[in-house]
Amino acid sequence: MWAALSRPAPVIRRPEDAPLPESVQEVRLWEDSGSFARTQLIHAPVFWVCLPVAAIGLLWFLTVDDSSDAGPDGFFWALWVAAFVWLLVSVGVLVHRLNIRREDLADHERIYRHGVLCTLHRAPWDLGGGEGDSSPTFIALDHRLGDRAARRIHQALRTWITAVTAVDTSCLDETLPAERLFGTEAKGGWYLPFIPGFGTSEDFAAHQWVLITAPKDPEDPQPVVTTVPRGKTFQRMREKARRRAARSAR
After folding, report:
1. ∠ at Cα 78 (77, 79), nearest 5°?
2. Where are the alpha helices (DSSP H) in the chain?
3. What's residue 206's pLDDT?
4. What CA–CA distance (Å, rounded) separates 83 from 170?
5. Prediction pTM value
6. Between vectors from CA 69 to CA 64 and to CA 75, what angle results, nearest 5°?
């Protein structure tokens, strides 16, 4: 198949418009555009630590303010124990979430340093959903590829996908680098069964971009795929990242 594609059909690419990330802060925004990870990993655990601290403060106030000769009863001491256990559990969760956040930040640094920016193209196959819906699959091409190499890899992947769908589609559920299918000459192309941020086939617009980063674990075959935003969203995130970088440089 690869050898037969010496004169592949053209594929539309615009490497001159490549939106390369300017900073780690920008990649961080691409990966967590809604700040959900920050909320889940930092703000929420801190809130849950504050609650038992407030409960302990209330219990302390009630203990000091208790003027009875008998002192606090057994139920009151049980509340003390429960509040401290709650505090210990909350602190443990916070420490665990902070470690996860630290790993996420290290991953963002790695994506920024080693991510390969790729143009994104529709593959001739849609994954079927459970309720009649379908989601698009993609072919990603390294934006640094020459036009001839990009056309050849693109056509080879399209031909292979079309042939596979007629036999067994189970292998189309995972990300596949073109070089695994066609050898080292096809390096720089990927088949992607999905990318973050896309839903149905109608959501797809031409000339999208993704960053593809090799996994940290050599035994893990699945790369990290980061969707590059577009239009006003891209400009807004870039401006926000520049402001953060400027504040950090002060």
Report:
1. 90
2. 24-31, 36-38, 44-65, 74-114, 147-165, 178-182, 231-249
3. 46
4. 51
5. 0.71
6. 70
